[in-house]
Amino acid sequence: MNNMRVRDLTLEAVFLALLIVFAMVPGMTLGFLPVPVVVQNLGVMLITLVLGARRGTMVMAVFIIMIALGLPVLTGGHGGAAILVGPTAGYIWAWLFQPIIFAALSLAWPKKDGQNRPGVFQSFVLIFMIDVVVVYGMGAGWLTISAHMDFWKTYMANMIFIPGDLLKVFIATVVAKAFPEKMFK
Questions:
Q1: Beta-carbon neighbour count of residue 32 at 10 Å?
Q2: Which residues of 76-96 are buried (b: 16+ CB within 10 A; e: fewer)?
Q3: In angstroms, what is the C-alpha Rg of the chain?
Q4: 3-state SS of 95-118?
Q5: Is the pTM of this model over 0.85?
Q6: What is the pLDDT of residue 183?
Q7: 179/102 Cα distance (integer angstroms)
Q8: How many whole angstroms separate alpha carbon 81 and alpha carbon 67?
């Protein structure tokens, strides 16, 4: 195994562990939406920004397998196959697609010569757009199906997450910028 592959596997394991550590921060329930405010999505944002499409999606797939196996890797120490079809399943499944969508959208965003990834501003905009459109959309869509809630009311209720998510997106983009550009080749 070459040094580059060992480095990649180590980085993937570290980010998977970080995602699980973020689950230890208790979620805050809102009462009107069966979805808590969590810090764990900050980990998903970091995975997306630092690991890219292939490695990020692989880490998220391993994470979902861990959930399905019943490991307590979600906020509140939850896990189990029932979570993947429960009220918050749409949000969790959206996390799987976040790295791929980010990579696809970032290809369309102009970059400076020699730049392998979007800059901080571009990353901030793309991650926030993915969060609001894809994650909130899939979450609201699944709540519509599983909890028989109105899609638009549920989607609009997600807007309560925006202030916290803006902070998380800011943290993720600043932290990701600290990683060397050569990692993204």
A1: 10
A2: eebbeeebeebbbbbbbbbbb
A3: 16
A4: HHHHHHHHHHHHHHCCCCCCCCCC
A5: yes
A6: 63
A7: 17
A8: 7
